[in-house]
Structures are given as C-alpha cells and as structure tokens.
Specification:
With about 120 residues, the chain is an all-alpha fold. It has 5 helices and no strands. Helix 2 runs antiparallel to helix 3 and helix 2 crosses helix 5.
Amino acid sequence: MAIQFLIGVYGGYFGGAVGLMMLAAWSLITTADVKQLNPMRMLLVTVANTIAVLCFVALGGVWWTQTLVLGAGAILGGYGGAHLGKRLPARAIRAVTLAVAWGITAVFFFRAYLRWA
C-alpha cells in the first residue's frame, strides 16, 4: 500500500509513465505475471486520468485540435502495444518495463533537480 501511495503521489504530480512505474513496483513485490497485473494498472491509470480530464475540461484548459491528434496517436499506440505485449514473453515485458520506468524516472529527476543549463 505504501508503494502504491508513493506512486500515486508521483503520478498525481508528474503523470508521466505512472503505469509503467506501477508495473515495475508491483513486479518487485509479487511473483504474479505482468500480464496478470496489467488489468489493475489499466483501471487505476484510467480512473486517475479520467478525473484529470474532467478537471481540465471544467476549467477550460483543453486545446481540442491538439487533443484529438494526440488521442488518435494514443489509441493507435495502445492497440499496437497490446498486440505486441501478447506476443512477447512475460520475462521480456518485465525487463523492459523496469528499464523504461527507471529511465523515465531518472530523466524527470534530472530535469527537475539537476539541470545545470
């Protein structure tokens, strides 16, 4: 619960790659297959993002043209990723998930706290 709370705080503030971070953290504390963890990750990320979208729409902070283009890309990427995920072995998915989560976290940390220029 503590790990999920910290991921939730991170996701609420940054938002970037929070789903990957969930899978990475969960894969460290359970032996469940990543494919079994994915539905819960999707549910939690969907709920959080839906609440954020409703807040942005209510406050008039949405640029609709850009939103539609980004949404189309997200849908195509989501379906493509799902098909790829079904074909890859669980061990490979776990390794890539952990690597991407750590990498993105390092980039965000660097940009936020260690930028020299």
